Each structure stands twice: as structure tokens, then as C-alpha cells.
Amino acid sequence: MTKNTIAKLWPIYIGEFINPEHSEIKNGLIDFFEKYKQKNLNNRKGGSTYSSDENLYMGGYDLHLQKDKYVTKLLNFIGQGFLAVSQDANKTEIENYNPTSCNVTISSAWFIDYQKGGFSLPHSHPNCSWSSVYYVQIGADANENNGTTFFQKTRPSSSTTDFGSYYNKNTMKKIKPEEGKLVVWPNYLMHGSLPYTGEKNRIIVSANALVSIIENK
Predict the structure, then answer these.
(1) Which one in 16, 42, 53, 157 has a CA-CA gap of 20 to 30 Å to 213?
(2) What angle do CA 7, 13, 19 make, to 5 degrees?
């Protein structure tokens, strides 16, 4: 006899990971970003597809191509996060699944230096399977309403307010910012950042990735 079941179809996977080596790479990353900005004074400063003000600096999509030991260490950690979320999402989808046979390719990576008042409009990332944000520096006044990353829900809003629809009442999910935290989500999920009101610049790194299975030869 078939047992009663309740299926949770098409879940949204959002991974949160803390980098144990953040304190060792933070200052090196910030120094690299400062040198990058000096060499690229006008690089994507505000007014891009994803931002509507001038209170931020956005690096090019080439961070993963830079030869810097601190950037390399960070991207290795981010790659591990991509792999962990991808493995969990696909463990019931692939027959004879071998989690050790996957390869992560970071297709683009960049940093954003938010000044006071900086924010990013809701958007999604094409040409990848997973996207991410890593908090390099957040300031002492960090909270869920100050420059934090938010996600917009994918399902339509409920037209009723009864208990049966309670799970569908929220329109967005805010992520608590923490230095050394990596957040990973599927590329199609609309996201952005709330206006930043702190005094010390908030610095984040974003990256996109594709994950493939290595074929046995």
C-alpha cells in the first residue's frame, strides 16, 4: 500500500557558509581592491544595469582572472560553496550520483565597494547555474535592513490571509550580513541589496559558476 506523503517540489536552495580563514585574507583582499580601483578609476562606477546611483564602485567581471594569492584563496572557498549546494540539490536527481565527480567553473567574479547610500536594484544572473555573494567588510552597524542582500520570492503572492496561506505571506528574504559569510543561490532568483547607511564602506565579492560532471574515460 502506498503511504501518505507530502512532496516539497522545486525548492529554492540558498546556502550560507562561513569562511574560517576570513581574518587571514580580509586585509589582503581590501589592499588588492584599492590597487584595482587606482588602475581602473572609472570601471563600472554606478549607473550600471544593476545600480541606480553613484555611491558604489563595481569592478570588472574579471576578478577570477587576477593573479593574487588572497583572491585565489577566496575563490577556492567560493568554489567549495558552489559545489556543496550543487551536490545537495542534485543528489536525488541523478541516478548513481557520485558527488566527487563534479567540476566547478567560476565563469565571472567581481567586487563591489558600497559607499553610504549605495545599493543594487533587483536582478538575476544569466549564463550560469549558481550565483553568490561574499561579505568582505560590513562595518560595525551591520543588520538585516542596512545594505543587506535580499531575495524576491518566485511564487505569486497569496490573495488570502488565512493560516493555510501563511507560508506564502512574505515577499522577500533578507540575509543577515556577516564578514566571511558566503551566500549561494540559483542564478534565476531575483535579488538586490538595500541602501547602505553605514559610515565604513561595505565591500562584497560576487561570483557566478557552472558545475559539471567529470566523465569517466
Answers:
(1) 16
(2) 145
> Closest Cα to residue 136, out of 33, 48, 1?
33
Three-state secondary-structure class, residue 204: strand
- pLDDT tens-digit map of 42-91: 665 444 455 545 688 999 999 999 999 999 999 999 999 999 999 899 88
For the record, the C-alpha cell of 35 comes out as 590597487
CA quadruple 117, 122, 127, 129: dihedral sign: positive
C-alpha cell, 71: 583572491
39: left (phi over 0), alpha (psi -120 to 50) or beta: alpha
The torsion angle over the Cα atoms of residues 67, 72, 74 and 78, rounded to 10 degrees, is 120
Q: Kindly write down the DSSP assignment for every residue of 123-188, as one continuous string.
A: E---S-SEEEEEEEE--TT--TTSS-EEEE-SSPPPS--SGGGGGG--SEEE----TTEEEEEETT
What φ, ψ does residue 30 adopt, rounded to 5°? -65, -40
Q: Where are the domains of the chain?
A: 21-94+101-143+171-212
- At the topology level, CATH places domain 21-94+101-143+171-212 in Jelly Rolls (2.60.120)
120: closest CA among 188, 68, 176, 48? 48
Paired strand residues for 9 = none
